[in-house]
Design a protein that fits this description.
single chain, about 170 residues, alpha+beta, Aminopeptidase, seven-stranded mixed sheet, 5 helices, 7 strands, globular, binds coenzyme A, ribonucleoprotein, protein-N-terminal amino-acid acetyltransferase activity, AcTrfase_RimI/Ard1, Ribosomal protein s18 alanine acetyltransferase, Ard1-like
Length: about 170
């Protein structure tokens, strides 16, 4: 895995001033702007609307000073895996602990709803996200060849409840 010095955030934000709450319909344009700034291939608006309708309590946003600065989309699969579909923090607000706070909130919610474990896919080159997931207790369980449309491989990572508890209590 690539490693790099963690850069200072462009905008320093006290985490105590950040509210994590369920996403609402009126948040979608702001969520989409962060999505477009964060990924090469952004999801279309319809996908966010459908996802919000189906998973209103595990689609969360981070709000600071009345502004949406990040979001996370989680859902419970039929096999009871809690799956993280997407997470992103506005580029100016990264490095403040907002991504970690969003992940902790959605993971807790998914376990409350009966998830047996939490799973996600991440680009093998995305060391920032991989670092974040490892810090929360996720482990790489397999590499999925050419998972992304540009041919890049993904790591499939999972978090067991006992590993999450250990991380949260430490
Ligand atoms: C991944 C992402 C959500 C992290 O959000 P963030 O708010 O910047 O993350 P946090 O400030 O909560 O940092 C949490 C951990 O992530 C890792 N991390 C964050 N920024 C990092 C960086 N620049 N370099 C290396 N690790 C980094 C660290 O392990 C950090 O823990 P620490 O602060 O205790 O050292 C954000 O970088 C992002 O939006 N990236 C673009 C979208 C994306 O790649 N999403 C994931 C798709 S699978």
């Amino acid at each position: 895995m690539e490693t790099e010095e963690i850069e200072a955030p462009k905008k320093k934000v006290p985490l105590a001033m950040v509210t994590i709450r369920p996403a609402k319909l009126f948040d979608i344009p702001y969520i989409m702007r962060i999505e477009q700034m964060s990924f090469k291939e952004a999801y279309p608006r319809g996908l966010f609307l459908t996802f919000l309708e189906a998973n209103p309590d595990t689609f969360l946003v981070a709000e600071y000073n009345g502004k949406i600065v990040g979001y996370v989309m989680g859902y419970l699969r039929p096999d009871m895996e809690g799956h993280i579909m997407s997470i992103a923090v506005h580029p100016d607000y990264r490095g403040n602990g907002i991504g970690k706070a969003l992940m902790i909130a959605v993971i807790k919610k998914l376990f409350e709803k009966g998830a047996r474990w939490i799973g996600l896919e991440v680009r093998v080159s995305n060391y920032r996200a991989i670092n974040l997931y490892k810090k929360l207790g996720f482990k790489i369980v397999k590499r999925i060849i050419s998972y992304y449309s540009d041919g890049e491989d993904a790591y499939y990572m999972i978090l067991r409840p006992e590993d999450f508890e250990r991380v949260i209590l430490s």
